[in-house]
Write a structure and sequence with these properties.
The structure holds two protein chains of two kinds. Chain A is of the alpha/beta class. Chain A has eleven helices and ten strands. In chain A, strands 5-7-6-9-10 form a five-stranded mixed beta sheet, with helices on both faces. In chain A, helix 7 (about 165-180) crosses helix 11. Chain B has eight helices and nine strands. Chain B has helices at about 5-15, 20-25, 30-35, 80-90, 105-125, 130-155, 160-165, 215-220; strands spanning about 40-45, 50-60, 60-65, 75-80, 100, 170-175, 180-190, 190-195, 205-210. Chain B has a five-stranded mixed beta sheet. A four-stranded mixed beta sheet of chain B has the order 8-7-6-9, covered by helices on one side. The interface of A and B includes residues 205, 207 and 275 of A.
Amino acid sequence: MAGLSYTSINQTRMATGEVYCQTLIELAKENPRIVALTADLGKSSKIGEFMKQFPERFYQFGIAEQNMMGAAAGMAKAGTTHHSTEDIAIMRSLANLTVIVPADGIETANAVEAAVEHEGPVYIRINRGYDQQVYETMDYGYEIGRAVTLHEGSDVTIIACGSAVFQALQAARELDAVYQIKARVLDMHTIKPLDKAAVLKAVKDTRRIITAEDHTVIGGLGGAVAEVIAESGMATAFRRLGLQDKFSPIGLHEDLMAHHGIDTNGIVNSVRELMQLDFEEDLDWEDEV
Amino acid sequence: MATKDDRYAAAIFFNAVLPLVREIAERTPLKKAFANKSGVLQISATDEDKMWATHFVLEDGVFTTKLGAATDPDVELRFPNLAHFNAFFRGTTKKLPKIRGFTKLSLLVPFLRTLLKMQKLLGSDDIPADEETKELMTRLYFYLLSSGISQLNKQGHPAIVDWVKMSPNRIYAWSVDGHEDVAAHLRIQAGKSKAMRGPYTRSQPFFKMRFDRLTRRWRFCSEKAI
């Protein structure tokens, strides 16, 4: 490729910034996806030469580096950039802040009403657009910090929040109808303070727990539930469904839920895998006599 | 030649019913007859080239149940085939098996009395008057339920095998309120099964048949509802 062969002699004659800019220019001639951004550093970073050759692909942000990095990240994703997949973890870590992730519009209304009455700051996380409807009415006993049992079961408990609640409920119905697996579903709308009693009861009753959230599994609902289980000292088969320490691709919400294994099929598959785990390794299969 | 049904029945008698001998020997007045005695007591039957057997190792009056044959039992009831063995324990024949142990009558006699007591208890639909016998009979039925189902699975009974093969890790339990140790449970998972005695306490069983009193058990096992 012409122009890309820089020797040690070239480097002694050109500033590193110039090498960087020339390389970009050569590549940009063949690749229209290459753009340049700068924060009022066109001259010192030598990227100004790029502006002369490709003015329509050059972006001057002024003295606003953070803004530039955000825009760069958005451009790199080449599409919708509004994935808030770490906010629960961040908000949970702030002292005295209540964190609520409603399952649907009706629960959002309940959460807002409860937040007004609540002493102290409240963070309510809602989705863009429409959520699948979980509740028919507001009168189901919504209370901050108290999980709602939407489906009873004794084989496994699916603890979900936000848009994953509907998927968990659908999964529980399918598990029962197709595989005769009885799944309890908890709508854990309040991530902080978490309903520890509901988690511990689920551990005691079902000994298998799956969390589902449209958020990274690190520090979110899954992390919060894991903390409660670990501190209880009780043995549990446990899985966290959500973003597994990675950024989300671009797509429709439903498609992204499927991609990350938190749609109905993904939850069903995870439950079935969990049900086959032998969590009593010491067990032999000889009848007691 | 033994049929499949003969073998299913034999598996239940050898591996689920005969182990109840220990409960009767240790929880009834027969306990005195075994006190301070030691020896090996066995029941066996021949099935073509295979020998079915259950034996009890008695050490100073304490029973240990072992499935399978002992090499040199002190007392033995030996049946020539499974059909004879099954018929004898069903009570449809009085033809005796070959008996070994006439030189050790102090072991043979209480052992035979224990077998007769077990036959009487398991064959009766009547509700006993005393609390101890009610408790013992309920315990025997619970143990028999869990062991019998597990044995049918292990012997390849098609209906049981199909059910167990499809199952995730699940517990089925039987218990009576106010009698904590009168309980049994069965674990099944992906083709495997295990019968266990006593209550299951590690989590909520998938299925629990819980009776509010001892006599309720008869409602399910006979027409003598209480």
